[in-house]
Amino acid sequence: MNAEILSIGDELLIGQVTNTNAAYLGEQLSLLGITVRRVTTVGDRLDDLLQAFTRAWDEQEIIITTGGLGPTHDDVTRDAVCRFFDTDLVEDAAVCDDVERFLAERRRPMTPAHRDQAMVPRSAVVIRNTEGTAPGYHFSRDGRQFFVTPGVPYEMHAMMENYILDQLREGFRSARASLTVLTTGIPESTLSELLVGIETLCPGCSVAYLPSPTGVRVRLTAVASSQDEAEKRITELQDFLLERAREYVFGADRDTLEAVVETLLVERGLRLAVAESCTGGLITDRLTDVPGSSRCFDRGFIAYSNASKTELLGVDPAIIEAHGAVSRETAEAMAAGARRAAAVDVAVSTTGIAGPDGGSTVKPVGLVWIGISSGDGTHAFPHYFGGGRTRTKRRAAQATLDLLRRSLLGLPLHPSTSGSIP
Amino acid sequence: MNAEILSIGDELLIGQVTNTNAAYLGEQLSLLGITVRRVTTVGDRLDDLLQAFTRAWDEQEIIITTGGLGPTHDDVTRDAVCRFFDTDLVEDAAVCDDVERFLAERRRPMTPAHRDQAMVPRSAVVIRNTEGTAPGYHFSRDGRQFFVTPGVPYEMHAMMENYILDQLREGFRSARASLTVLTTGIPESTLSELLVGIETLCPGCSVAYLPSPTGVRVRLTAVASSQDEAEKRITELQDFLLERAREYVFGADRDTLEAVVETLLVERGLRLAVAESCTGGLITDRLTDVPGSSRCFDRGFIAYSNASKTELLGVDPAIIEAHGAVSRETAEAMAAGARRAAAVDVAVSTTGIAGPDGGSTVKPVGLVWIGISSGDGTHAFPHYFGGGRTRTKRRAAQATLDLLRRSLLGLPLHPSTSGSIP
Fold first, then answer.
1. pTM score, two decimals?
2. How buried is A253 (Cβ within 10 angstroms: 0-12 exposed, 13-18 middle, 19+ buried)?
3. Do residue B290 and residue B194 come from a single domain?
4. Looking at beta carbons, which residues of chain A come within 8 Å of B72?
5. What is the pLDDT of residues B210-219, one digit of tens each?
6. What is the domain range of residue A95?
7. How far is B102 from chain A (nearest CA, A)?
């Protein structure tokens, strides 16, 4: 069963907006065993929409469009579907009620543009919008399914979860299994050397490496004659991978390193404090993205100025004077000071040169010292992350969380392949 | 001049990776006046690539592909371009040197997979990779330009900036101007009501609203017979917009609210501290994304536990006891305490219920109190951001930075349309 995702909107073509909707839809359809053959993005032009609708309708069995349903004049998707399915607009009382209730809850006034959203194509099944005002539509003809959704991500997600996925699930099953193994601290090329032979381990299996600045994800896929067999093959691949690269693996699929670390802390009954200089709050931001993070995360110190390192963390000014703010000694004093000031079990610290200025030959832009202090003592390690301010922040935050993971699991604190992660 | 962006990789179709490359390329091409007619994403399958190459070659004058050039076996783009352009591989000494130097700088070993990347299509111009190991290729035939680049964003960006944009610039000029005005604190529907009539203000102009959880961007575009005329029209549109909605406008195009706020602070010689509970470091993370943020940002307190609010910020436990950690009184005490503890001119604070748990009828999930303390006194304001933990964090961080902007500019501290921003 093949699908096409049609993303609609000038803002996508000119790069004002990144197409996260296609990624979400691709994942949801793949999980159902539906093959996404193509993602096509076109602008808000009636002719381009009609051409794209026609081609998708000729070639695919499932079509999902996103975008162009908003209350402003530049949205033409509703017009285009009316023409394509040769239907006109009719007022839908339920949608009208939905819009009124949605606005009332938010103490916002109803505008003519809102009222117009209750006008829907006569021959469509309406998909209610629980998160906004524009309804979606579902056309089903000649064995094909054509879903029309808004471009606002959470509105579209709600329609998928409340309606479209149920429609698609009926009748689909395929013997296919997959798992994405998440690694950090090892470059793609080194990892693929460690895993030589994995792709020929069993028939119908494939392995894809997905590198990012914070780690490499390894996607394992198996197709087999039965679901049991497909899952058995995934287990074989996973075992092979863990046997050769276990220390770099922090989770699978939707796991996040911050959630993994927090689970470890909670299991051990440990509380955490964080002292950040160059990462500027990114680590605590990630930690507090996890629901329930207050079970283990106590506080953070964003000790950006030198004075704040001394006042908040008790770092001796003589240490900064002698070794610099970016040094092993300062990183260690920050971690130990945070642990002491917050009276917690574990603390981590970062101090580095995020750039673009402030680098030198000895301490280049991208150098970050990462410290940890716990019952096992206080240690700090240097990382050379190369250029790019926000990329350096992201890599340093990831390496700090991974240092914490390694410490909690009793692994070597510094991965054998330090430095940059391509 | 029409272009197509061809994004290659199974990881894009199954949604493991979001297609940020297409957004970047769309923007870069649009800025040159090149019209991106379509973005097409296909998987790592030779036949699908050849089909997509053929269609793009038939229909467009400029084609840029990204992805599928990596060192692992699942990458087939090089094979596909060799077949499409009927050429074979030849070793390129310069690329070989590039790869060796790149790895040596990072103290990483050369693997056979790396060595293979020096094999390039004989009939292509090689595009050197300054950020990684896979080179790009440029084919120029029959008045068409076909560029092949890696999928790793910063590698592709460097190739664009160092080579491809220069190639494209030759001979393109068009009388087109555009400006994206950035607003926050006002919903799309209210903003479009305020701006009724803007789209018919002058001929050849268009206006697009791009809403996001943190604000609405308004893209103004003008096409005219001369560049001067196009820019004059943009100025007319911008003046109209500012006259009706000035207080919500914080910048244009690539501006960020954090950079705008820091410029205002530096201009006034003021230093800032931040006390965050529910936003968990997101505000300081954004502030420190700006190069040179240490000129005005002194420190942050991530006061997550109640004890830390008292110990770091001097919040009287009796206030938390009487009014709760999420209250006007606590938010004000946090802001005033941060200003005092850091001995700075201005401090802001957040305390809220990010969810998913912890809400009540009186204090629902999504309620965030945002405080500010400066020479003008200490104030706090409630915001109801609705559901979604990370979305609430993002909206609260944006509203806090906007409160700071409003305070620094002497605007009303609370926008007239409070509450949710659709």
1. 0.73
2. exposed
3. no
4. 188, 192, 208-209
5. 888 899 999 8
6. 2-169
7. 11
